[in-house]
Amino acid sequence: MTIGEHIMLLRKQKSLSQADLGKQIGTSGDIIGRYERDIMTPSIDVIIKIADVLAVSIDYLVGKTNLVLDKATLKQLEDINTLPEAARGYILNHIDMMIRDFKNKTAYNHK
Which residues contact 97 (CB under 8 A, 6 or more apart)? Predict the structure, then answer.
């Protein structure tokens, strides 16, 4: 997907008009329409504003990842990242174990 397609999809998911999104980032709905049709490419400053309004990461908005992370999840990851290395490792090991257990449980329940 292009950045314009991502903007349009996310804007519609949030039930925002082009004018609404434009107003929230300090531009017009016409400009948002041009971004969505890939006639214009927003500057990095505008991309940051759009990502904030649409509550997604910049990476998702520009198509670098297909993973949509909400602000709460991003905050949790940032919090984990600020911990000492031993604490980070402990938490990440537990997350890995829970993911493995969930996948195993799901695999056995579908047989």
Answer: none
Q: How many structural domains compose the chain? A: 2
46 in Cβ contact with 27 (< 8 Å): yes
- Tell me which residue range forms the domain holding 76: 71-109
**């969505």: which residue's tokens?**
36
| End position of a domain, from candidates 61, 81, 98 | 61
pTM of the prediction?
0.70
Q: Is residue 66 part of a domain?
A: no
- Alpha carbon distance 36, 94 (integer Å): 41
Q: How many CA atoms lie within 13 A of 46 on its CB side?
A: 16
* Statement: residue 1 has pLDDT above 90: no
